[in-house]
Amino acid sequence: KAGVTxxxxxxxKTRGQQVTLSxxxxxxxxxxxxxxxxxxQGLQFLFEYFSETQRNKGNFPGRxxxxxxxxxxxxxxxxxxxxxxSALYLCASSFGDSSYEQYFGPGTRLTVT
Amino acid sequence: xxxxxxxxxxxxxxxxAIASLNCTYSDRGSQSFFWYRQYSGKSPELIMSIYSNGDxxxxxxxxQLNKASQYVSLLIRDSQPSDSATYLCAVNIREYGNxxxxxxxxxxxxxx
Lengths: 113, 112
Description:
The complex is a heterodimer.
Chain A: E1 5-7, E2 10-13, E3 19-24, E4 31-38, E5 42-50, E6 53-57, E7 64-68, E8 74-78, E9 87-94, E10 103-104, E11 108-112
Chain B: E1 4-5, E2 11-14, E3 19-25, E4 33-38, E5 45-50, E6 54-58, E7 61-66, E8 71-76, E9 85-93, E10 99-102, E11 106-111
Parallel strand pairs in B: 2-11
Antiparallel strand pairs in B: 1-3, 3-8, 4-5, 4-9, 6-7, 7-8, 9-10, 9-11
């Protein structure tokens, strides 16, 4: 069974630009969660989508948004990039049931200059 | 108090020894507990999940859960240098809509 895939793997953007990251979950998984990981803050929850609906949201500004498509693929968008947005962005997929067992993709390394 | 707390380490153990990693959590109603392993520059990998009090063994790994003490641990037997990584504890926290909350991670170093 194929794992979670994320594209692109690496990205360099300039402050003020916007970026869209993509995540394809494991086949059969209906939930996709997004996380930001930085050395100083660790793994921070951004949001979770289940069946095309945002089910949960972390404490990030509105510049961070996401969506999920009918095939469970998800995208997250960051507008007006800031230097502090440089991080590893991870998505994790799960069945979305009460077990909460999540499997991570390889991540997208975003560098903002 | 942080929702999920781990000692940041590093925890250094000799090859072949037992490594013991600990995690405490704040939500008494939490039902799902996970251990992830993350190698430097890689994404977290799920290695153990536990939902009931007691021990759960999988190969060289044993997860232990004590809900009364709000404590979950991971034991790694016969530690190998390849076990050197950061171990993340994750717990579902009801007050945050049942999302998973991750600890900051414990760095484990296995010396050969």
